[in-house]
Every structure is written in C-alpha cells, then in structure tokens.
Design goal:
By secondary structure, the protein is an all-alpha fold. The protein has one domain (17-84). 56% of the residues lie in helices and 0% in strands. α1 packs across α3 (69-84).
C-alpha cells in the first residue's frame, strides 16, 4: 500500500493507512513485542516501500531540511507509539 500512495494523503487514505498500522501494532503487542521492535519492523517495511528516512530527521538547522519522505515516516512511527501506549485512537 505504501508504494502506491500519493502524498499528501486525503483523510480517507490517512485513516486507512493508520488502521493498518494500528492492526500491525496490536498483533506485535499481543505477541509480546516491545515497542522498539514494532517500530523497527515498521521502518523496515516502509524503507522497502520507498519511504526512507534521512539523517535530517535527527538533526536541526536550515541545512538539514526534511525530505518529502521524512514527515510521512515520522507520522507512521508516531502512530505506532500512540497505538502501543493507547494514547490516541
């Protein structure tokens, strides 16, 4: 699904993607995976689908502006954390 998405996502597509991420987190958590393992797995899957995160995410300053894929992956990882700890639905 990640390969064929066009950004920015509309609300329906964003909801669909978040539901998939939530389901994945639920299975991992049920199987006893710690959040770090779930996030690493999601990031690997995203990278395979072409959503590479750049070093710019962990740096700051004008020379480190985010690439177009960075906010997408950051959002997906945020969803993982939210779901794992049930801080947002």
């Amino acid at each position: 699904m990640l390969r064929v998405l066009e950004y920015p996502l509309d609300d329906a597509r964003r909801g669909e993607l978040r539901a998939i991420v939530n389901a994945y987190v639920d299975v991992g958590k049920r199987d006893g995976w710690p959040p770090e393992r779930i996030i690493a797995s999601v990031k690997r899957t995203a990278r395979f689908a072409g959503l590479d995160v750049t070093i710019r995410v962990s740096r700051s300053g004008p020379q480190f502006e985010l690439m177009t894929t960075d906010p997408r992956l950051v959002e997906i990882v945020g969803w993982c954390i939210d779901r794992y700890y049930n801080t947002a639905e």
